[in-house]
TrEMBL record:
Source organism superkingdom: Bacteria
Originating species: Candidatus Dojkabacteria bacterium
Ranges where the Aminoacyl-tRNA synthetase class Ia domain occurs: 7-187
Official protein name in the record: valine--tRNA ligase
Membrane-spanning ranges: none
PANTHER family cross-referenced by the UniProt entry: VALINE--TRNA LIGASE, CHLOROPLASTIC_MITOCHONDRIAL 2, VALYL-TRNA SYNTHETASES
Any one cellular-component term (Gene Ontology): cytosol
GO terms of molecular function: ATP binding; valine-tRNA ligase activity
GO biological process, one term: valyl-tRNA aminoacylation
Protein biosynthesis as UniProt keyword: yes
Length: 348
């Protein structure tokens, strides 16, 4: 906020035209040509006749200027402006132009939005101009929160570039470790507004965590016999159970981190809880508690239902961080009628 305040308090003139071959063309047309228009501006009091005399040429036009996507249906020749808009002039109007303009139906429904996410290096170039245009055109700020991301750097901490050849193709990382592993690394290491060198060993560790989720989930489901599925799905969970209470407290902690954009802390907590609390302790405890219980017994159904509930709650809270594995496991539950819909539609 202080950075934006400094920008507005020290505002400078902004040339919005660029001499480029590509971009959004400035919608201006010149009657008789741009050269005539420029000459008349530079020679106040002169006329088109004077221009024709000085340059010994014939002008088919009035020297007027017209603003519009297409030339007007008037006599004379109309020459199009060749300059393009500065890209930030165009993108600065993105919040409302993408909604059909200030009179569009989508604009009425979706403007203003809640959050704008982009890298910190374009704060002045993009957010500052979106705010400026938004207030000027609509009287409202286009968003109330700006979330600044950092850049992913090469492993040695340098900026990735084609010339250096130190860039990393995301698809190669996906193929090797999975998209969830890379995504979780970004949440863990790339703090808001801070750059982060990519760490393959951490991404590899995240792949192991993703595999742990799959294996633990499969283990839980394998321990529910086919004859027990209906009973487990209908069994009420004892919400006063210590495990359940700790699970719900865990979810509150992660939700708090998410609401404060402290995704790195949330990523750390979900891993610690699932791996070391659920897998290392609770699954082993419940295995012992139902070891001698008969298939379908009340106590066995109660414990399996508790374990299933904890798994589902963990899948829901982990989904924003690692959506692919959590949705895959959830759909396995759906097939067995132990869950419904999509995990992304569940309320934390």
């Amino acid at each position: 906020q202080r950075a934006l305040e400094f920008f507005y308090e020290n505002i400078q003139p902004w040339c919005i035209s660029r001499q480029l071959w590509w971009g959004q063309r400035i919608p201006v047309w010149y009657s008789g040509g741009k050269k005539v228009y420029d000459w008349l501006n530079e020679n106040e009091g002169k006329t088109v006749k004077d221009f024709e005399t000085e340059f010994n040429t014939k002008v088919t036009g009035s020297g007027d200027i017209y603003v519009g996507e297409n030339p007007p249906k008037k006599e004379g020749e109309w020459e199009a402006e060749t300059d393009m808009f500065d890209t930030w002039f165009s993108s600065g109007q993105w919040p409302y132009t993408t909604l059909g303009g200030v009179n569009g139906e989508d604009f009425k429904k979706y403007y203003p939005t809640q959050m704008m996410i982009h890298a910190r290096d374009i704060l002045f170039w993009w957010s500052a101009r979106m705010l400026m245009f938004g207030i000027y055109r609509t009287g409202k700020v286009p968003f109330n929160t700006v979330f600044l991301t950092g850049m992913i750097l090469a492993s040695d901490g340098s900026k990735m570039s084609k010339s250096k050849g130190n860039g990393i193709e995301p698809q190669e990382v996906f193929d090797k470790y999975g998209a969830d592993a890379l995504r979780l690394w970004y949440y863990s290491d790339a703090l808001p507004g801070s750059n982060a060198p990519i760490r393959e060993e951490k991404i590899k560790g995240n792949r192991n965590f993703v595999n742990k989720i799959w294996n633990a989930s499969r283990f839980i489901l394998m321990n529910i016999e086919d004859s027990e599925i209906a009973k487990v799905s209908k069994q009420s969970v004892n919400m006063s159970s210590e495990r359940i209470k700790r699970t719900e407290e865990h979810i509150k902690i992660v939700s708090k981190y998410i609401s404060k954009y402290q995704f790195n802390l949330g990523a750390e907590v979900i891993r610690e809880f699932f791996w070391h609390q659920l897998c290392d302790i609770w699954i082993e405890e419940i295995k012992g508690e139902i070891k001698d219980e008969e298939i379908g017994s009340e106590r066995r159904i109660e414990k399996l239902s508790e374990l299933l509930y904890i798994l589902k709650r963990n899948l829901i809270v982990m989904h924003p961080f690692i959506p692919f594995i959590t949705e895959s496991v959830w759909q396995e539950l759906v097939k067995l009628k132990l869950a419904e819909g999509l995990v992304m539609s569940q309320q934390i």
